[in-house]
Amino acid sequence: MTPVIETAALSKRYGRKTALDDCTIRIPAGRIVGLVGPNGAGKSTLLGLACGLIAPSGGRIEVLGRPPAASAAQLARVGFVAQDAPVYSGLSVADHLRLGARLNPGWDAGLAQRRVERLGLDPAQKAGRLSGGQRAQLALTVAAAKRGELLILDEPVASLDPVARRAFLHDLLEFTDELGVSVVLSSHLLGDLAQVCDHLIVLAGGRVQIDGAVADLVAVHHRLRLDGTGAGALDALPAAARVVHTERTAAGRTAIVRCADPVPGAERADLEDVGLAYMMATEAHR
Where are the transmembrane segments (predicted)? Predict the structure, then answer.
């Protein structure tokens, strides 16, 4: 099956600044992908490249088997919601649906109308007077009703309160099942990603740190509590083990260890442990 996004040695530079470097990933179809990293890690750059909004400085990227934005037909296959859930403040909810219908040949008017009614959005309400959560839901509705094969969301919930974030992510899961669409969701909120994602990419320092199915990544990462200096516990690790990062917390020192074999005395790391370990390790070496 053709991957939804595939890159090889992809890079993007702005003058002397490298925003993305040697990025090689392969995202299978049918996944909800969490793209995570600290601010400035290159997340928005990667998504901009995938949408064809910017051109790469080097390397290769294909989206659904073709170069991004290669044609109008290719553009119609990808829905995109940029940061801050952009909507037109002077247009009403109904205006947004009419505009979506005019711009998108595959527009699903029934889907858009059902979502607006279920969310309780007033069709006559100006978008500028909606709450942050309602604006995010309107932007998601427009992107979903495009009926593309890939939906790209660039930190759509970053400015929302926890209740609005939970509602947005719940709806995302619901209609991705209905539409059978692949999703790439960028966020720095690992707890939110853990609720919905089955594939994880960690970007830090403009480079890919890990990329893989969540179940596979969690299976090979362990949280090991260290007593004292921790030297004894670390010395006893299996030969194939790799210490990703160690840190001191109120509960004591811990290490996140990558190893396909069992690690004595360790417990299974969760998605947040894994993502943070790679981000913090990269920051510590910069």
Answer: none
